[in-house]
From TrEMBL:
Gene3D superfamilies: NAD(P)-binding Rossmann-like Domain. InterPro entries: NAD(P)-bd_dom_sf, NAD(P)-dependent_oxidoreduct. One of its GO terms (molecular function) is aldehyde dehydrogenase (NAD+) activity. It comes from Stutzerimonas xanthomarina DSM 18231. This is Nucleoside-diphosphate-sugar epimerase. GO terms for cellular component: cytoplasm.
Length: 286
C-alpha cells in the first residue's frame, strides 16, 4: 500500500487550516506550523515554531516531506513586517528543509495579486507585467523570486482579496456608510477563503497525480467587479441608507484578474461571485 502523501503548511492560519482539513479528508498526512500550534484542529498535526527563527522547530517531522505550502501572513503591516513574514520567514522555512535534508516534490508559495500595479480596469493574467509601486507588492515579488531560486519545483499562487462573511470587515465598512469612487470604476478582485483552500488542494492533488503545473496561478473568483457595485449590493442587503463623508481606502489598483488558468485544471469556485459569497448576509447578521 502506498504511503500517505505528506505536506507541511508553514504559517497555518485560516486558509491553511481549511486546506489541511481538506487534504486530511483525502488521506494526506498534514503538518501545520504556527506559533500557537496547539490550537490547530485534529487531524492536522501541530508543529510549534516561529518563522522568524533560523533554528529548526523541535516538532519538525523526520523523514521526507512531499510538499511545503508557505502560507504565512504579515502580523505587522509595514515594510519591515512584510519582509519578516514573506522573505525572512520563507528563507528560514527553506533553511529548515536543507538542515533536515528534505527535498519536497514542490513548494507552493501564497502570494498576492498586489504584485500587479495595473489601474485602468484592464484584464490581467499570470503573464501580465508585475511592476508594483508600493512596498507590499515589491516585497512579495522579492519573496516570489526567493521561492523560485530555492532549487525545488515551485508554484506561486497569487491570491486576490480573501474574504468570508463570518469575518465582517467589509460589512462593517458598508454599515459605516463609507463612500467609494464611481467614475472611473475601481475594479476589485476577491476569493472566498473556502475557494482559496480548494484551489490549493486542487494544485497539490494535481501535482501528486503527475499532472503538469505552471509556476504561477491567480486565485480569484469569476466576477471582478467595480467596488461601488459590491458596496451598493451590500448596502441594499444590509438595509444601509446613510452615507459618511469618508471614502473607503484602497491599497490595490483597478484591474480585472482572470482565473482561466486555474479553472483549466478543473477547479471550480464554490462562490463564483461576491453575491454567492455574501448570500448569508442580512441586517443584523454578518
Amino acid at each position: 500500500m502506498a504511503s500517505r502523501p505528506s505536506v507541511m503548511i508553514a504559517g497555518c492560519g485560516d486558509v491553511g487550516i481549511r486546506l489541511g482539513l481538506q487534504l486530511s479528508r483525502a488521506g494526506w498526512t498534514v503538518y501545520g506550523l504556527r506559533r500557537q500550534a496547539a490550537s490547530l484542529p485534529v487531524p492536522i498535526l501541530p508543529v510549534r515554531g516561529d518563522l522568524a527563527s533560523s533554528a529548526v522547530p523541535r516538532g519538525w517531522p523526520n523523514g521526507n516531506l512531499d510538499y511545503l505550502v508557505y502560507a504565512a501572513s504579515a502580523s505587522q503591516h509595514d515594510e519591515a513586517g512584510y519582509r519578516s513574514a514573506y522573505v525572512d520567514g520563507l528563507r528560514n522555512a527553506l533553511g529548515w528543509l536543507e538542515q533536515r535534508g528534505q527535498r519536497p516534490k514542490r513548494v507552493f508559495f501564497l502570494s498576492s495579486t498586489g504584485v500587479y500595479a495595473q489601474s485602468g480596469g484592464e484584464w490581467i493574467d499570470e503573464t501580465s507585467a508585475t511592476e508594483p509601486t508600493g512596498y507590499t507588492g515589491q516585497v512579495m515579488l522579492e519573496a516570489e523570486q526567493l521561492a523560485l531560486d530555492c532549487g525545488f519545483p515551485v508554484t506561486r499562487v497569487r491570491m486576490a482579496g480573501l474574504y468570508d462573511p463570518a469575518r465582517p470587515w467589509m460589512q462593517n465598512q458598508v454599515r459605516s456608510g463609507l463612500r467609494v469612487e464611481r467614475d472611473p470604476p475601481q475594479y476589485s478582485n476577491r476569493i472566498h477563503r473556502d475557494d482559496a483552500a480548494a484551489l490549493l488542494a486542487c494544485l497539490l492533488q494535481t501535482d501528486l497525480a503527475g499532472g503538469d503545473l505552471e509556476d504561477c496561478y491567480l486565485g480569484v473568483d469569476d466576477d471582478p467587479a467595480p467596488l461601488h457595485e459590491v458596496v451598493d449590493w451590500l448596502r441594499e442587503r444590509l438595509g444601509v441608507t446613510q452615507w459618511a463623508e469618508q471614502t473607503m481606502t484602497r491599497r490595490a489598483g483597478s484591474k480585472r484578474c482572470s482565473n482561466a488558468r486555474a479553472r483549466a485544471l478543473g477547479w471550480v469556485p464554490q462562490y463564483p461571485s461576491y453575491r454567492n459569497g455574501y448570500a448569508s448576509v442580512r441586517p443584523g447578521k454578518g
